Amino acid sequence: MSFFRVLFLVVLTLFVTACQSGKDEAESLSNEVHDSAKTMEEASMDSKAEILVPIWNGSETDNMIFEEYGTNPFVSTEDDTLSTFAMDVDTGSYSVMRNYIKRGSLPPDDAIRVEEFVNYFKSNMKAPTNDTFAVHVDGGKSPFGEGYHLLRIGIKGKEIEVEERKNANLIFVIDVSGSMNRENRLELVKKSLRVLVDELQPQDRVGIVVYGSRGRVVLNPTSIDEKDKILDAIEELQPEGSTNAEEGLTLGYELAREYFTEGAINRVILASDGVANVGETGHEEILEKIKDYAKKDITLSTFGFGMGNYNDVLMEQLANDGDGNYAYIDSFSEARRIFMEELTGTLQTIAKDAKIQVEFDPAKVDRYRLLGYENRDVRDEDFRNDSVDGGEVGAGHSVTALYEVKLRDDTTELGEVRVRFFNDETGEVEEINQAVSFEGDNLPEDLKFLAAVAEFAEILRGSYWARESSLESVLELAQDSAHAEEHYAFIELVKDAMALSRE
């Protein structure tokens, strides 16, 4: 069995139990807080058929692998006042959706992760001056849930100037197998990496490993002072053979270990469609190796390419285990955004194993529901268990969590939010906390837009909680609150989705 197929099986095993736990309770149509999981699932199935039916374009969407992580239910504060999850800055789900719609298809509901839609958009939150994170809390009446409020908890990481960024030792592990010739996707990889190389500093180094039927080192780590040599090596890459991802990753990690520099960014960057058909190994051994390297400060980021045979589950999980970030690159514009506009945050981590815990006051909050983060769930009792994996956050990155809450009265003092993480600079565990409160019922304009984005994701994934929503209402709210170029691009996607849903 191939490396990625075996790894895929283990990912399913790891997550299926957690996914099912999110379906244990649901709110009935009469607003009863608890309902059976079976009732919720049946209602969800019905609502999927009523809201949107995914449209497929034959060979363009074959062998696309996604995972169903469930949908968070409403939780009564009488039963559980704590909501705990790992921070997540990934954005792959949003660009996967965009690629589907631009090709004339609605994405399958399993491809949708609400938090990655919300976190795709730039935040105007202020960065901290001295601390690692600043916590921002606001909210107002929900535009999509009558009688509910929408609560935003935003975490903004400290910013680091380009000239102050750590030196980077980057090992590109590039899939050059025959599947990367499909849709000319290897050419997009090459263009993307050229953008990245052009943004690096003279003190940075780049090494290149490729894998087709076999893995091989194309370029030992080379200083950006010899940028032309690096770019020439990238330009000469051509599709070849089968897909031995196991050997490619192994060589990449070995090269990163050989050229490891204390105090620098030591990172393996995988560019692939996540599909493999050559190479066998024990899945537990590979997963442990990735985690072991991350503990030794050699991290892994994954960047996905391609439509038609793409493994979203594994690309995300590899980055999660490797303490890196995951993004899906569907266009040169997306490559420019990640590798040019957000390069420092993409490369330099400021916090590891970061977790968020919100404690709601049961005297003030009747029930709550976290939008997304289903596959980032952390047991409440593990919030301060520092051996439990959290999320990694880069310099200047922001993390936004949205809650729907049912208040008991007009109070705005709802509880407390805590953030716990390993400070990457000091290596020490830190914990910060802040009151959860907001004033007034009117949502800020940028939160109105994020509400539209979140509801769009909820509709696309056939969420039970979006059963009474419509794309028309999403479009109206997005148009009323949009103020940036990326917002208007989102509006066009909503319009396209509306047209596709009528076919």
UniProtKB/TrEMBL annotation:
Keywords: Signal. InterPro entries: CLCR, Uncharacterised_YfbK_N, VWF_A, vWFA_dom_sf, YfbK_C. The keyword Signal applies. Residues 169-343 form the VWFA domain. PANTHER family: CALCIUM-ACTIVATED CHLORIDE CHANNEL REGULATOR, ZINC FINGER (C3HC4-TYPE RING FINGER) FAMILY PROTEIN. PROSITE patterns: PROKAR_LIPOPROTEIN, VWFA. CDD domains: vWA_subgroup. Residues 1-18 form the signal peptide. It comes from Bacillus carboniphilus. Transmembrane segments: none annotated. This is VWA domain-containing protein. The lineage of its organism: Bacteria, Bacillati, Bacillota, Bacilli, Bacillales. The keyword Signal applies. SMART domains: VWA. It comes from the Bacteria.
